[in-house]
Specification:
The chain has an eleven-stranded mixed β-sheet, sandwiched between helices. With 504 residues, it is α/β, with parallel strands linked by helices. The protein has 17 helices and eleven strands. The two termini are 14 Å apart. It is globular and about 75 Å long. 41% of the residues lie in helices and 12% in strands.
Length: 504
């Protein structure tokens, strides 16, 4: 859909400004109910769209634009490059923990409420260079800590499929904005499932790339060894296109991998027959809702019909992953968030001395979930407890990673539910943090191992979307996208797909 929109704009069948105006109009009509956006950048978005339209019109007058990308020569070099990009004129939204020059980046926190970055994150820069137009920043759980979209310091986001339900978190606004048709695609960040879980709850596609595949430069850090930026889209083809633009080595990120980026879209139509798919029994057992299990089992039958070999397998250390994550992630968060002390960034609450100023700023600036994780992490790193908790957690993390390595020696991909449940009701788990943490139980092992995974819609339960998670070995995004696209095409006529289309 994104490629078709960009092609229509390039040929003059659709103006970029009309598409941006359409998005802004839809946001104005629906966002009061859904709460997807924290900031809008409508004026700059319309100016960029108009500039791209002008560049394309000049090219068409010379007979160059109609031939497609590559023909731009008129206007400024920057404007010509934008109009020449594969996403020229396509609007998008960006999670509010990704830095955008001149547009505030709050992380949905009071402590950064007025922070305006002086630079763009690498992903934002690459999308702009490809011609994509940022229309706004999306709501999220504060500093990406949460699984429901209810932990924003400003207001919760609601699920477009049922506004009494949560959209999932922490990329809640991005997933809901795409599901509601407010933007064609959005960026999120995934530390323990924060792209895939809301994608599952909202019925859209969400990808967590291999750690190091997409630059983290400009992403406000939560847990640096786990964070990755990923796209949320309506289709697998759209996901592949956005991945082609944002992936690749970045010298400004020391953890960025120097691995070439394949043409993901070229692989989408390939036959998946013969692929060996493992289904870890630990992901299909206790705690998985019957409706979710039924939808995932139906998806497994589709892959069998496509000629794939589907077998049960085991990842024996999965049961420890949740505990490991809630030691490693808060430990890294407590260190990363130490910089917000009232001196260097954002909020400062004045007091009689500097110690009191630190204390009051952090107490008033951070919400309860962030304070809870900072305290957990500080405790795990403290003298006397480091070996007992943090070091032991890192050792078990290695065992979780080895489980995946052994599984991928036998299987091309692994399949599992993205979430054990469908979207739960707003407020249902806010008083029970442990119950809330269980919402990410199927996605967290992927982040601990640093491997790629995607969530795609695979059916319904209780009338709500169910997500299928496809996991692969490091840098196997192309195989994951190939399998996801084959499933999407094979189920194009399914009744639940038709109902999904009618809702949009």
């Amino acid at each position: 859909m994104i490629a078709q929109a960009a092609d229509a704009i390039r040929k003059g069948e659709l103006r970029a400004r009309e598409l941006v105006e359409s998005c802004l109009s839809r946001i104005a009509g629906l966002d009061g109910l859904l709460g997807c956006f924290l900031s809008l950048d409508g004026e700059r978005a319309l100016e960029r769209a108009a500039r791209i339209d002008e560049e394309l019109a000049r090219a068409r007058q010379r007979g160059a634009g109609a031939a497609g990308p590559g023909g731009m020569r008129a206007g400024t070099r920057e404007a010509a490059a934008e109009a020449d990009g594969v996403l020229a004129g396509v609007p998008y939204a960006c999670k509010d923990n990704i830095c955008t020059r001149g547009l505030r980046t709050t992380c949905a926190s009071r402590i950064l409420e007025e922070y305006v970055p002086p630079y763009d994150a690498t992903v934002v820069h690459r999308l702009a260079r490809a011609g994509a137009i940022l229309v706004g920043k999306t709501n999220m759980d504060e500093f990406a800590m949460g699984s429901s979209g209810e932990n924003s310091a400003f207001f919760p986001t609601r699920n477009p499929r049922d506004t009494t339900r949560v959209p999932g978190g922490s990329s809640s606004g991005s997933a809901a904005a795409v599901a509601a048709g407010l933007v064609p695609f959005a960026l999120g960040s995934d530390t323990g499932g924060s792209v895939r879980q809301p994608a599952s709850f909202c019925g859209v596609v969400g990808m967590k790339p291999t750690y190091g595949r997409v630059s983290r430069y400009g992403l406000v850090a939560f847990a640096s060894s786990l964070d990755q930026i990923g796209p949320l889209t309506l289709t697998v083809e759209d996901c592949a296109l956005v991945m082609e633009v944002i992936a690749g080595h970045d010298p400004r990120d020391a953890t960025s991998a120097q691995v070439s980026v394949p043409n993901y879209r070229e692989a989408l139509g390939r036959d998946v027959g013969g692929l060996r798919l493992g289904v870890p029994r630990e992901y299909m057992g206790e705690g998985i809702e019957p409706g979710v299990r039924e939808a995932v089992n139906a998806a497994l039958r589709v892959f069998s019909d496509l000629g794939c070999v589907v077998e049960e397998c085991s990842l024996p250390h999965t049961e420890y992953a949740l505990a490991v994550y809630y030691l490693v992630a808060p430990a890294e968060a407590s260190s990363n968030l130490a910089r917000y002390d009232g001196v260097r960034y954002g909020l400062r609450v004045d007091a009689g001395d500097i110690t009191a100023m630190y204390s009051r700023t952090r107490r008033q600036g951070f919400g309860p979930e962030v304070r809870r994780r900072i305290m957990l992490g500080t405790y795990a790193l403290s003298a006397g407890y480091y070996d007992a908790y943090y070091l032991k957690a890192q050792r078990v993390r290695t065992l979780v990673k080895r489980d995946f390595e052994q599984a991928f020696s036998r299987y091309d991909l692994l399949l599992a539910p993205t979430s054990p449940t469908v979207a739960f009701r707003l407020g249902e788990r806010t008083e029970d943090p442990l119950s809330m943490y269980m919402a990410d139980v199927c996605t967290i092992p992927v982040n601990l191992a640093g491997i790629p995974a995607i969530s795609i819609p695979c059916g319904e339960s209780e009338g709500l979307p169910v997500g299928l998670q496809i996991m692969g070995p490091p840098f196997a995004e192309v195989t994951i996208l190939q399998a996801a696209h084959a499933f999407e095409q094979a189920t194009a006529g399914a009744p639940w797909r038709k109902r999904e289309g009618e809702r949009r």
